[in-house]
Amino acid sequence: MVKVFPPPFRREVSRIVAASxxxxxxxxxxxxxxxxxxxxxxxxxxxxxQTGGTVFLKQGTYFLSGPIVIDKSNxxxxxxxxxxxxxxxxxxxxxxxxxxxxxxxxxxxxKLVVNGNGxxxxxxxxxxxxxxxxxxxxxMITECYLREGKEAGIKLNKAYANIISNNFIADILGDGxxxxxxxxxxxxxxxxxWNCSNYCINITDTTDTYNIAVGNFFGYINVGEIxxxxxxxxxxxxxxxxxxxxxxxxxxxxxxxxxxxxxxxHSISGGPYTYTSLSANTLYAFNMPIPETTKISAMGxxxxxxxxxxxxxxxxxxNGQEYPGSLLWDSxxxxxxxxxxxxxxxxxxxxPGLYWLAIISDGTPSVQQTYDLGLCLxxxxxxxxxxxxxxxxxxxxxxxxxxxxxSGASVNAIRPFLALKKA
Length: 423
What we know:
The protein is mainly β.
C-alpha cells in the first residue's frame, strides 16, 4: 500500500490565514494586507462556524480595526504562539476577540498575542466572553499573551464553566480578568499577571459565584491580587472536596513535571523568596495537592546560613478534614553542618489527593521560605484572604515524627519552601 501524505506546509485545519508579514504564506486560504485584517479572519471563522473547525493564524502581525467575533460553538482560533500577534488600532473602543452567546460552547482561543492598545481606546480590551441573552460556557482561553487591555485582559459576562489557563496577562489598564453578570464556576489556572492597574482577578457581581483560582502568579501588584464580592471563590483544597479526581487531574496537571529527576513544589505568588528561622521543637506542615500518581525519590529545602541543628522531614496524608493525618514517610535525623541544600531519599508513590509536607528541628536554622503559597489555601471560616491556612504548627519534642499528626495545631505565617523530586 502506498501512503499519501499531505504537503508539509499545510496543517490539518479548517482554514489558514496569513498576515501581511507572514514569512511563509503558502497554503493559506486568506491573505491579510495589514489593514482591517479582522475581515479576512472573520471570513475564515464564518467558513467553519456552521459545522465547527479551526482557524489557524500564521506567524505575523494582524491589525484589527474592529473585533473578531465567534458566535457559534466548536470553533478554535489558534496562532503560533508569541509570533502571532493581534493588535487593535486606535479608536476601536472594543474587545479584539469576542465570543458571543447565547448558547455558545467549546470555543478555544489559544497561542496568540493580543494587544488591546488600551492607551488609545476608551473601552474594550483583549478577549470578551459574553453570553448575551444566554451564556458562553465550557470554552477555553489558554497559552495567550494578553496586554494593554483598556477595561480588562479577559472579561466574562454571563459565562460559566470556562477555563482560563496558562496565560501571561500584563500591562492591563483595568483588571487582568473581570467577571460580571452571573459568571460562575469558571476556572483561572496557572496564569501569570504583571502590572494590572486594577485587580488581577476581579469578581464584581454578587451572582458570580463559585469561581476557582489556582496556581496563579501575581507580580507588580497595583490594587490587589483577587477581589471577590461573593466570598465564594475556591482556592485549592476545596477542589479535592467538591470535584472528582479526573477534574483535579486536568486542573492541576501542569504542576507535575513530565521528566524524572525534576524538583517541584507548591505554586508561589505575590513576592520574592525570603528566609525565616524555624522554632525549635515545633512541627510544621503545609498542604501539597498531588494531581496524578507520582513516584517521589527525594525531599529537600534550602538553608540560608550554616547551622549545626538537626532536622527531620516527613510526608503526611490528609485526614479528610483538611488537616494532616497519618505519617507516610520520615526522613530520620539529618544534621545540617556543612549543608546548603538538605535532602533525603524517598521511595514513595503518591496517588492523587492532598498531602502535607512536614519539617521539625531541635534548633533554629534559617531556611528559605516563600512570600506566599498561591496554591491550596484552606479557609477555616470564610473564603477571604484573611485566615488562610498555609502552614500548621504544633509543639513537639524533636525526634521520630508522630505516626498521626498531633491535634490542636495552630496556623503559622512561616512558609518553609519544601520540595519533592520526581523519580
